[in-house]
Amino acid sequence: MLDFLGLASLDDLFAHIPAAVRLAHGLDVPDGRSEPDVAEEFARFTAANRAAGGSLVCFAGGGAYDHEVPNVVRSLASRSEFVTAYTPYQPEVAQGVLQALFEYQTLVSRLSGLPIANASLYDGATALVEALNLAAATTGRSTMVVSSGVHPHWRSVVRTFARGTGHRIIEVPLVDGVTEWASVDVEEAAAVVVAYPNYLGVIEEMDVAQQRAKALGALFVVAGDPVAAGVLRTAGQWGADVFVGEGQVFGTALSFGGPYLGLFAVAAEHVRRLPGRIVGETVDTNGRRAFVTTLRAREQDIRREKATSNVCTNQTLMAITAAIQLGWLGTDGLRQVATSSASGAHALLEALTAIDGVEPLVRAPFLREFAVRLPRPAEGVIAAMAGDGLLAGLAVSALTGGADPSVEGDPATGLLVAVTERRTASELDRYVESMRKAVR
Amino acid sequence: MAVAQPGGRAASIPLMGHEVEPTMFELSVRGRSAAQFRTTGIASRPLDSMVPPHHLNPEPLVTADLAERDLVGHVTRLTHRQFSVDLGAYPLGSCTMKYNPKFCDAIAADPGLAAVHPGAPASLTQGWLELLATLEDRLCAITGMAAATLQPAAGAAGELTGLLLMRAFHDANGEPRRRVIIPDSAHGTNPASVTLGGYEVTTVASNERGLVDLDELRAALGPDVAGIMLTNPNTVGLFEEQITEIATAVHDVGGLLYYDGANLNAIVGVVRPGDMGFDIVHMNLHKTFATPHGGGGPGAGPVAVSSRLASFLPGPKATRVEDHYEWVTPSRSIGRVHGWHGNALVLARALAYIEVHGAQGLERVAQHAVLNANWLRHRLAAILPAAYDRPCMHECVLTAAPLKSAFGVRALDVAKALMDEGFHAPTVYFPLIVDEALMFEPTETESPQTLEALAVALESIAQRAASDPAPLHSAPHHTPVSRVDEARAARRLIATEDAASR
Fold it and tell me: Looking at this predicted complex, what is its ipTM?
C-alpha cells in the first residue's frame, strides 16, 4: 500500500506535520499486552469491588435499582447488529434500530401519558437539563423553580449547566418530605419541576405542583420514576408539559452509574423544540412501511449556533434494551414490578421502625423507596451491614453532600432504602436483624 | 497491491427479504407473558392500602404482551434489517466506525463491574475507583494533559463541559469574555455547545487549502475572545499545519484552545493535543478507543485539561489517597455534569482497549487509519477526486461534483448505490464547505481486500453513472426498504404506535 502512494514508510504519512509538535519517543503508556493478560489486570479490579448479588444483597436505590434483567433481554440487547451500528443516518439499512426506537418511543409515551417521546438522552439528570432549556426557549424566561425532592445529583447537574445558560435555579425546600411550594416568592417562571415520587420516595401532591406551575405561567416538568409510572397516574394525567426520567430500571444493569438512559416526552405543542433524535413512520418508494429520523431541522448539525440542544450521540442501545425489557415484562409484569417492590418496601419499613431508635425520616406516603432516621450516622451503619452481606442503602448525606433544603435536621443520619421485586422475605429478615445489631 | 480476493462486502443483505416486520404492539396478544420473577415470600399488598387512591391510575397502562419465543423472533428479525460494523465495512466519515474487539465487551459485561451500585461506599468499590483513576492517567498521557473528568456521556456533553471550564477559568480571573471562535468546517455540535455555554459564535472561514486562514483568525481575535474550538485534523481530514502559530495567536489575547477530539484516531500516539498548545481536550471514547456505537450511543466524552484548569473539573473524581482511592471534588469544581460517574462501562471498555494496544499499538492505529484513508483517496482519484488534493489524515473528503455535472448523479445517489453493493454509505454533504461531499473514513481495521472491494464497487457505480444513471437516482434496490419518504415523515409526524392509529 505504501508503494501505491509512493511512500517509503508509515512515518512519511505524517511528514507534513511540524516536527516540533510530533511525539519524539512515543506515548508514556505501558506496552500492549495480550487480552488474557489484560483480563488478569481487570480481575484485580473486579476482586476489589463488592458487586450486588449473593454476597451483597442490594437495598440501595437513589436512582439506580437492582431489578430483574433476564437472560433473554441480555441476549437480545447484546446482538451485534444493534451494538455495532451507528446513528441511523441511512434508513434503508437501519430499519432494525429505527423500528426498535419507534417501539421505545411508543412505550415512553404510554408511561409518561404524553404523546411525543424522543429516542433517548444520556441519563435522567441531563434529560432534566434539556427540559429546562426547552422551557426557557418556550417561555422566553430563565427562572427555574425546582423542588428539592429532585435527586440531589440531578440538581447539581442543573446548577452546573446553568453556568452557561444563565438560568436562575430556585430550589424549593421540602417540609416533612413534601415540597413547600408556598415558600416560592417569584411572579413568573419558565419551569416548575417536581419529582414523582421524589428522591426520598415520597408521593408528592401533584395538583398543588401543577397549579403552582400554572400560576407562574411556567411549563410543568415531571421527573418521574418510570417503575412507579406502571401504577401511578401518568405525568400527562397530572397535566405535565414535559416528562423526564431515568430508564436504567428497564433492562440496564447497575453498571456503576452508566451508561443509563434519559427518558424524555412532551405534550404535542412542544414537539418542535424536542431535544435529540426522533423516529417517525413513513413509507418507502414502494409504499412499504418504513421508519426514519425526522424533524431533523431541530438538530444541532442543521441549526448550529441557533440550536437549543447540542445532543448528537445519545443512548440508543439502552433505549432498545428498555423496549425489549418492557416487551418481556408485558402489561402485567410492569404492574407486578411496582406492586411487589412496594409491598416489600412497606413491610421493611414497618419492621425497621420497630427497632428502637429507627424512625421514618418523613411521614408521607411512598411507593418503593423510603428514608429512615437512624440513631447513628448512616455511613457507619452501611459499613457494618456490608459485613453481613447487605448493601443497606445510601446515606442521604452522601447524595446531598451536606446540608440540603430537602432534609430537615442532619442528613448524615438519614438512610435511603429501596426494595425491588428481587428482594425476598428472608433477605428482609436478614436486613432487619443486621440493622438491629448495627444501631445498637 | 498484492492482495487476496477483494472481500468484506455484506452481499447477502437483506437476510429476510423485503417484508415489513410487525411492531411489538401489533404482535401483542393480551394475556401472553414472558416475565418470570423470584418467589419472594412477601405478601403482595393491595396498592390502595399503600398509596392514596387518587394517585393510582384508573386506566391500566397497557404495553405489549408477548411470549418469550415471539419476543425473540421479533427482535431477531429486526436485527436482520440492520447494517453494522460486524456485518461489513462502515466507512462513515467523522464517525470512526472501526471494528470493536469482543474482548472489551466481555470486560464490560463482567458482573464484578456491571453489577456494582454507583452509590455504594468507596470502600466497597475500590476496583472501580482504581480503574477510573488509571483511565484518567492514560488519557492524560495520550493527550498531553494534566487531569481529566470522565463524567461527560458523549462528545457533545464533553464539548459543553469544556466550554463551562473555559468560562469558569475566565470568571476566576475576573475577565468574563464573550466570544468563541469556530472554523466554518466545524461539526454542528461545536456552535450549539458554544451557545449553551453562554458564548457567541464567531465563525472564521477556511482558506483554499481547507485550513484555518491565519490572517482571518488574527482579525477575529480580541480581548473578548474566550477561546477557539478546533478539530485537528479538521473535518476535511487535513492537519492544521500552522497549529503552533494559531495557538500562539489565541494565547496572546488570553484565550484558550479547545481540542475537539472527534478526529483523535488520526493522531493518537503520533501527536498530542497538549504539545500543539491546546488547553482543553475532549475525547470520543466510542470512536478512538473502539467502544461500539450502539446504534447511536452510549458513547463517552471525557475532558482532559492542562494544569491551570484542573481545579475547575467536574467532581467528584476517583483519586488515589495514600494506599487507597477516594472520591475527591476539585477545589473550584464547576459541579457534576452526569447523574453519577459517567458512562462507566464504556470507560472500562476503553481502558481495556488501551491496555491491549499499549503505546506502540495506539501509534499503529493512527498510522494504519491514515494509510487506509490515503490509499482510498489515491485509488478513487479518477472517479471521485479529493476536495483538497494533498495527503489527508484518517479520512478523505471526495467530491461527486464531476459526476453531477457530467451525468446528474449526486453524492446522495452514490452513497445510496453503495449500500446495494454491501457497504455502508460514507457521510454525505458534510463538511458544508465542500460541494457534493462524500467523506470516507475507512478506519485502520479494514483490510486491503476490503478497501479494494469498496473501490471496485465505487468504480462500478461511476461506470453506471455514465451508461445508465436512472437506476442510481432510485437506489438502493437490494436493501430491506428502498428510499424512504422523509418529507412525509416530517409533514405528518407519526412518532408512536398510538399516533399511527392502525
Answer: 0.98
